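Help needed: design a sequence for this.
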């Protein structure tokens, strides 16, 4: 983690410049195409230490402080310096424009503030990621949404994002992810720029967009953000059971492509979703959590080797300021589980060693 530690110190200096961007007192929304008013300087929140940790998906408002507070403390006990909290908003289909949260799933604001406090009291930095899912996907994915009116969709999405951005600011959250894998929307650059300007007025911390692993070079609003967010579901093998050396070798050209492209953007990288299910063949389709619906010792070992190969490839890269592992859960784990969580699996020892060598 030496490289990450050095990178984040440098990033904190750079962030002092970039985070002096804006915090306008006006509550009015920006409009795409309009020239943004020059906002006054605002205080910066200096971030120390790497954004390395585990993600928790919040799925229930019932007993949320007890349940998710326990998971947060477990992540701290592993030695991680960071936790990501993720909450879902829903639109019905890819053609829908209405975006809503579910009261049974999304805790009230005061509970979120308690969870942020629990994380900070445990010595963790917080990454907050609201994301969109489809409630009636029909075999489709949020990266393919096609609403009849993008203006109407962005108006809904803006309300969704700004609510959580304002909440993140109240809770002194360190990093906010303004969008996740919304591939088909990314060509609407001016809408995204306007949303990012509005989010900066609400939130003074580090702003990131989480791009899909295979769709990041065409995004034209990276300059408006503080860091590049990337998922890591690349194809690393053609058959189940690759060796550790084979996985390291597979990462080399991917690493070179990402780092060469990053130079043109000039932002640090945070890997927002790092994960492999404990399934045989997880290195083929890391994004497919039903690639093989079975838990086997070989599947657990393939997950473990993928964890190790990723760390070997990226942990000491100075332009990478963080990596968030997907995911930490108390409803799954152990030898019979084939999902993403490392709980009770060989991969957990790899993570524990990684976190504690900082």
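Sure. Designed sequence:
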């Amino acid at each position: 983690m030496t490289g990450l530690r050095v990178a984040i110190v440098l990033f904190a200096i750079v962030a002092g410049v970039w985070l002096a961007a804006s915090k306008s007192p006006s509550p009015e929304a920006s409009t795409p195409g309009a020239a943004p008013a020059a906002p006054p300087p605002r205080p910066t929140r200096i971030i120390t230490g790497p954004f390395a940790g585990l993600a928790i998906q919040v799925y229930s408002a019932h007993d949320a402080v007890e349940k998710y507070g326990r998971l947060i403390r477990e992540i701290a006990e592993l030695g991680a310096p960071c936790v990501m909290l993720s909450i879902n908003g829903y639109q019905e289909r890819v053609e829908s424009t209405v975006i809503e949260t579910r009261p049974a799933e999304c805790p009230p604001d005061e509970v979120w503030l308690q969870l942020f406090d629990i994380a900070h009291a445990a010595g963790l930095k917080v990454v907050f990621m609201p994301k969109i899912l489809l409630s009636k996907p029909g075999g489709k994915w949020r990266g393919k949404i096609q609403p009849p009116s993008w203006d109407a969709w962005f108006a809904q999405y803006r309300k969704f994002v700004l609510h959580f951005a304002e909440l993140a600011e109240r809770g002194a959250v360190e990093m906010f992810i303004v969008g996740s894998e919304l591939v088909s929307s990314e060509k609407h650059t001016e809408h995204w720029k306007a949303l990012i300007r509005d989010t900066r007025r609400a939130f003074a911390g580090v702003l990131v967009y989480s791009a899909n692993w295979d769709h990041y070079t065409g995004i034209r609003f990276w300059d408006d953000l503080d860091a590049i967010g990337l998922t890591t579901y690349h194809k690393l093998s053609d058959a189940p059971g690759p060796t550790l050396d084979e996985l390291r070798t597979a990462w080399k050209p991917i690493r070179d492509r990402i780092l060469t492209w990053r130079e043109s953007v000039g932002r640090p990288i945070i890997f927002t979703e790092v994960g492999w299910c404990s399934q045989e063949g997880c290195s083929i389709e890391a994004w497919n959590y039903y690639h093989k619906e079975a838990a086997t010792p070989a599947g657990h070992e393939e997950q473990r080797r993928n964890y190790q190969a990723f760390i070997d490839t990226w942990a000491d890269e100075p332009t990478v300021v963080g990596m968030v592992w997907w995911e930490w859960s108390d409803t799954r784990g152990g030898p019979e589980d084939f999902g993403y969580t490392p709980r009770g699996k060989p991969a957990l020892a790899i993570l524990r060693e990684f976190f504690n060598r900082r």
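The chain has two domains: 47-231, 232-318+330-344.
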